[in-house]
Amino acid sequence: MADRFYDEGTHRRAKPVEGVESTVRAAVRMVAVAEGFTPIDTGDGYLAWSKDIGQRTHVMFTCNGKLDGDPEAAEWVAGRYGEKGGFVEVNGLTLDKAIEAVKILPIPMRNDGSVAESIYPSLEQAMSDLS
């Protein structure tokens, strides 16, 4: 999933998606928009909510490649992605946990300066591994 969700070219290839917010249930749309996220197509019709957060990184979350999904289902993926590579991604989250994750996930870089490219089954494991 990570290759489709982000690769070095995704930041340049991603395009804003217009007029789709009305197709997303209010419980998802209101949270995403309130947190400053906008919908994008990362390529091949794969949709995500995205926000540039500085430090040459951006964060995204999606529900199985869609903007909409059950907020309570652990089907959401959240991640932080470097403009020139690297990612930290967590799978199996509820919408609330995905929002929490994008607020605290670290820059995709290890302590030794190497780029991290990691997918984690839990937010706790991601934070532990990259702290």
Your description of this structure?
There is one protein chain. The protein has 131 residues and is α+β, with helices and mostly antiparallel strands. It has one domain (2-129). It is built from five helices and seven strands; from the N terminus they run ααβαβββββαβα. A seven-stranded mixed β-sheet has the order 1-2-3-4-5-6-7, with helices on one face. It is globular. Mean pLDDT is 86; it is low at 1-8.
> What is the assembly state of the chains in this entry?
single chain
What proportion of the residues is helical, as a percent range? 25-40%
How many helical stretches? 5
Q: What structural category characterises the helix and strand content?
A: alpha+beta
Q: Major sheet, described briefly?
A: 7 strands, mixed
Distance between the termini: 24 Å
Give the SSE string. Answer: HHEHEEEEEHEH
User: Can you count the beta strands?
Assistant: 7
Number of domains: 1
Quick one: overall form?
globular
Uncertain stretches: 1-8
Q: What is the strand content?
A: 25-35%
Radius of gyration: 14 Å
Mean pLDDT: 86
* Spatial strand order of the main sheet: 1-2-3-4-5-6-7
In brief:
The chain has 131 residues and is of the alpha+beta class.
Blueprint (SSEs and pairs):
Layout: H1 2-5, H2 10-13, E1 15-16, H3 26-34, E2 38-41, E3 47-54, E4 57-63, E5 76-82, E6 87-93, H4 95-104, E7 117-120, H5 123-129
Parallel strand pairs: 6-7
Antiparallel strand pairs: 1-2, 2-3, 3-4, 4-5, 5-6
